């Protein structure tokens, strides 16, 4: 190959390529999605039946968002603790974290929601009650009162739904945090320790800030997944948008209007959130 | 029994990685203010010895005394002894998410419990000492290798260590940047810092070292002065090694 060849070829090649590539890489699916969304919004706002369904289902939006946000915040804490446990050299914490992750990931989310809400929480209440009985029989009655007073009715289905989602997602987030921590080179921990920092200080100031930055896109994707999975809490009669849509459909027999509206509402939320995740991801990458 | 001027005393140190014997009964005494250069082929245990001195590797057996204090397995004691021992790594290991100034102040604040002002004052002095005060606000990724390594030295010095360990500090550098790092190390040596340096820079060994160790297969083969090593090596293995690295 002559030198001239070397210089000219890439220029021509690139131009041809970029025009073709632009056509090929254009997000046609996104354009289609926007058209569908505009169409459906038009129908919902102009068609009386769809409009009625939307106004009814909208009531559940607050519950869906609240459940997702609170459960996700708790799941982050569970996930971080379990992720740290997974890389811990302490045999007890390591195995405890592993047990939690494997147990949860081996059971369908729907089953976990039933189990935690209808078996786990009542068992916990029973346990607390028996601690109270033990305390009062030991003669420490002032301490025993709060333990004895708690009943199953005190823990609403909304709260149980949040607990169930948080426990479930904690196990998934644990693996994300573990991978993120392990993606940071060994030299970072050694440098921090060589300066006299404890393991905890090195984690807090050096490892986790870098690890969390690396896994932000993955955390965002799981948040989007959780918005969708929050629909499962409708099986506990929690009045999120899915449950409200079911109620609307059941009482009016307008199944088409109810479920089209419901699907579009989820789609709107997830597409918007995905776009935010993509923007964050791109900004993180350009900072590197 | 340890002379107070012996700042590092290593007795009968063994380190195994699985079945591999990395250190095979190493004993060593370093006097305060001395510069020791450790040379030897790769895999000879030089880095392992260095990393055992500040307990980044836990020795399999043997004793290490730092300034009259015996290293134990107690985590708190190890952390506090590490603050007296600065370490400089081959790959710099700066914290990429922090600015140069933050790199140098962080451990001062969280380990030494210095105030922000004091830490920043010390940091800027150390950055001046290594010749890059103007880079305080930069991130490590915007620095050259030589600059990064000088920041790493400043970061270690800011803790006010009694001993500095250098683990092949110039091996990852482009040739034109080696000098700027060696100059900082030479300054440090002339100021009386106790230094243990694993390096392949024979020029540095000749001009700055008080003693030179030649290691092979986890043992100290020869422990002598730079003059003695380069002009009058005693052991065959030392002669072979020197002939290989000084050939060109």
Task: Walk me through the structure.
The complex is a heterodimer of chains A (288) and B (248). Chain A has twelve helices and no strands. With 288 residues, chain A is mostly helical. Chain A has a single domain (62-287), classed as MetI-like fold (Orthogonal Bundle), CATH 1.10.3720. In chain A, helix 5 (91-105) packs across helix 8. The longest helix of chain A has 33 residues, at 255-287. Chain B has 248 residues and is α/β, with parallel strands linked by helices. In chain B, 38% of the residues lie in helices and 25% in strands. In chain B, the strands form two sheets. A six-stranded mixed beta sheet of chain B has the order 6-7-8-3-9-10, sandwiched between helices. A four-stranded antiparallel beta sheet of chain B has the order 2-1-4-5, covered by helices on one side. The radius of gyration of chain B is 18 Å and the shape is globular. The model of chain B has no long low-confidence stretch (mean pLDDT 93). The interface between A and B is medium-sized, with 20 and 27 residues.
């Amino acid at each position: 190959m002559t030198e001239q060849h070397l210089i000219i070829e890439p220029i021509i090649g690139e131009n041809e390529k970029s025009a073709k590539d632009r056509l090929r890489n254009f997000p046609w699916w996104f354009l289609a999605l926007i058209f569908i969304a505009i169409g459906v919004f038009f129908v919902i706002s102009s068609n009386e039946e769809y409009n009625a369904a939307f106004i009814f289902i909208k009531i559940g939006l607050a519950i869906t968002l609240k459940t997702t946000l609170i459960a996700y915040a708790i799941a982050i804490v569970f996930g971080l603790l379990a992720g740290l446990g997974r890389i811990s050299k302490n045999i007890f914490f390591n195995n405890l974290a592993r047990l939690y992750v494997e147990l949860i990931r081996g059971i369908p989310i729907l089953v976990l929601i039933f189990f935690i809400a209808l078996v786990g929480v009542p068992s916990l209440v029973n346990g607390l009650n028996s601690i109270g009985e033990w305390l009062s029989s030991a003669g420490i009655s002032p301490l025993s009162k709060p333990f004895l007073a708690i009943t199953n009715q005190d823990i609403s289905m909304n709260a149980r739904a949040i607990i169930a989602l948080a426990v479930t997602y904690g196990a998934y987030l644990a693996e994300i945090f573990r991978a993120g921590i392990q993606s940071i080179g060994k030299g970072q921990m050694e440098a921090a320790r060589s300066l006299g920092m404890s393991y905890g200080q090195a984690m807090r100031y050096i490892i986790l800030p870098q690890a969390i930055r690396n896994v932000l896109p993955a955390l965002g994707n799981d948040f989007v997944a959780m918005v969708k999975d929050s629909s499962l809490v409708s099986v506990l009669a929690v009045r999120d948008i899915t449950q409200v849509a079911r109620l609307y459909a059941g009482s009016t027999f307008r199944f088409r209007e109810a479920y089209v509206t419901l699907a579009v509402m989820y789609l709107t939320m997830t597409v918007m959130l995905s776009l935010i995740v993509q923007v964050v991801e791109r900004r993180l990458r350009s900072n590197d | 029994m340890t002379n107070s001027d012996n700042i590092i005393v290593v007795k009968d140190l063994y380190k195994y990685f699985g079945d591999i014997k990395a250190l095979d009964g190493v004993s060593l005494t370093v006097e305060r203010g001395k510069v020791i250069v450790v040379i030897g082929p790769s895999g000879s245990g030089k880095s392992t010895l260095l990393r055992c001195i500040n307990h980044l590797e836990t020795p399999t057996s043997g004793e290490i005394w730092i300034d009259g204090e015996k290293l134990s397995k107690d985590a708190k004691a190890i952390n506090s002894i590490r603050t007296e021992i600065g370490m400089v790594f081959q790959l710099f290991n700066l914290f990429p998410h922090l600015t140069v100034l933050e790199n140098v102040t962080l451990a001062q604040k969280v380990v030494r419990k210095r105030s922000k002002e004091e830490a920043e004052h010390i940091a800027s002095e150390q950055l001046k000492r290594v010749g890059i005060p103007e880079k305080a606000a930069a991130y490590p990724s915007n620095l050259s290798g030589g600059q990064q390594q000088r920041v790493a030295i400043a970061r270690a010095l800011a803790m006010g260590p009694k001993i500095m360990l250098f683990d092949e500090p110039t091996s990852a550098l482009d040739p034109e940047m080696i000098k700027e790092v060696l100059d900082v190390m030479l300054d440090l040596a002339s100021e009386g810092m106790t230094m243990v340096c694993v390096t392949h820079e024979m020029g540095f060994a000749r001009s700055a070292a008080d003693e030179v160790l030649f290691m092979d297969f986890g043992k100290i083969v020869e422990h002598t002065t730079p003059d003695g090593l380069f002009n009058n090596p005693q052991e065959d293995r030392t002669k072979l090694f020197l002939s290989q690295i000084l050939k060109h």
